[in-house]
Write a structure and sequence with these properties.
Elements: E1 22-25, E2 32-33, H1 35-49, H2 57-61, H3 68-75, H4 82-91, E3 97-98, H5 102-111, E4 115-120, H6 124-133, E5 142-145, H7 157-166, E6 173-177, H8 180-189, E7 192-196, H9 203-208, E8 213-215
């Protein structure tokens, strides 16, 4: 495993390997800090569909990276919560925060010639809408949601779809996420699995999922992704 700050070449970043051509990002907890908005939307949806009592948002967060209906099934909650949850998420989209340093990283990666995609547990439409509201959509060649693949994370399908759309082989790409489901999806697709610690809620659990590289701040990603030849 390779860590950040004092970045050392590991098996995935050794001298002489093929340059990385693409980065596949998870969205929540990596690009945006949406957890306050997510918690409010979840609480409102719970109150509307289930009724009184505290909404189990802490448990919901433990399943981050998965598709919302899958989380509802795991938690034994009504699938009908999805409607109000999505409605409130759209309503509060402008309150979502972009992590410090992310815009600079996205701009630099674009300038270096890398192709970028998002592979998220959200639906594709909602992810693209959020990125558009935040002014980030132009940085990404593709944004894929869990409703746009046969099997969402932790299956590799969404990362494989991103690679297909980007037209980049697995050994020339990295997938960066803040949840074990992200890393499992990356491992299954045979891309370098990168753990983002700045947005995760359980660093020990994320590290236990076996990332190839650990990043402590967004700018650390740039050490993994030098400019492509001719840029």
């Amino acid at each position: 495993m390779t860590t950040t700050s004092d970045h050392q070449p590991g098996r995935d970043a050794a001298p002489g390997t093929v340059p990385r051509q693409a980065v596949v990002f998870d969205l929540d907890g990596v690009i945006v800090d949406s957890f306050a908005v997510m918690g409010e939307a979840f609480s409102l949806a719970y109150a509307e569909v289930v009724g009184d009592g505290p909404a189990p948002f802490d448990e919901y967060q433990r399943h981050q990276g998965r598709y919302f209906p899958d989380i509802m099934r795991i938690m034994g909650l009504p699938l009908e919560m999805e409607g109000p949850f999505v409605r409130e998420s759209y309503r509060m989209a402008e309150q979502v925060q972009v992590y410090d340093g992310i815009v600079d990283v996205l701009r630099t990666l674009n300038e270096r010639g890398l192709r970028l995609a998002v592979a998220t547990g959200k639906s594709g439409e909602r992810a693209r809408s959020l990125l558009d509201v935040l002014g980030l959509l132009p940085y990404f060649a593709h944004v894929i949601g869990s409703d746009e693949v046969s099997r969402p994370k932790p299956a590799p399908d969404i990362v494989l779809r991103a690679l297909e759309l980007l037209d980049v082989p697995a050994d020339q790409a990295v997938m960066i996420g803040d949840a074990p489901t992200d890393l499992a999806s990356a491992h299954g697709a045979e891309v370098t699995a990168v753990a983002a610690l700045w947005g995760c809620h359980d660093g020990a659990e994320l590290l236990a999922a076996g990332p190839d590289v650990v990043l402590r701040q967004p700018a650390d990603l740039l050490a993994l992704c030098p400019a492509l030849p001719g840029r």
